[in-house]
Amino acid sequence: MPQEAYYRFFSHSAEFNQLQRDRVVHTTNPHGRGETWFTPTRFEDPVDAQRLLALQRTPQFRVGPIPADEMPDFDVCGPRRIQPAYGQPGGAGEVCTTMPVFIFGCYNFGSRDWEPL
C-alpha cells in the first residue's frame, strides 16, 4: 500500500530562499504564529491549488511529496477540510505544524549546488 505524502504550496520568494538556503520547509510569515500548512493533495495546476486550498494568492512553488513518516507531529491541527476563504471555495484537506520539516534534494554537479526536489 502506498504511503501518504504531503505537499506545501506557497508564493513568497522568502520561503523559497529559505528552502534553498536551509533545506527546511517552515513558514516565513511573521504573523502566522509559526504555523506551516500542508496538504495530502498534489495539485498540478496552481489555480486549482489556490481555489481548493483557499489561498489568497496563486502559489508559485510546490514542495513535495514529503512522505508521512518524515513529517513532524501535526501539533496545530490534524487532517481537516479547508473552509472557504479569500473568495475561494476550499474543500481540500490540510494539516498544520509549528515544527520545521527538513527536506532532501539532490546535488547538482554541474552547478555545484544543492537543488530542492
Describe the structure.
- The protein is of the alpha+beta class.
- Helix content is about 15%, strand content about 30%.
- The chain has a three-stranded antiparallel beta sheet, with no helix packed on it. It has a two-stranded antiparallel ribbon with strand order 1-4. The protein has a two-stranded antiparallel sheet with strand order 2-7.
- Strand 8 (about 105-110) and strand 9 form a beta hairpin.
- The radius of gyration is 14 Å and the shape is globular.
- The mean pLDDT is about 85.
Mean pLDDT: 87
Query: What structural class is derived from the secondary structure elements?
Result: alpha+beta
What is the count of helical runs?
A: 2
Helix-residue proportion: 10-25%
Summarize the structure.
With 117 residues, the protein is of the alpha+beta class.
Write the layout of secondary structure elements.
Elements: E1 5-10, H1 13-22, E2 24-25, E3 36-38, H2 46-53, E4 61-67, E5 77-81, E6 93-97, E7 101-102, E8 105-108, E9 113-116
Antiparallel strand pairs: 1-4, 2-7, 3-6, 5-6, 8-9
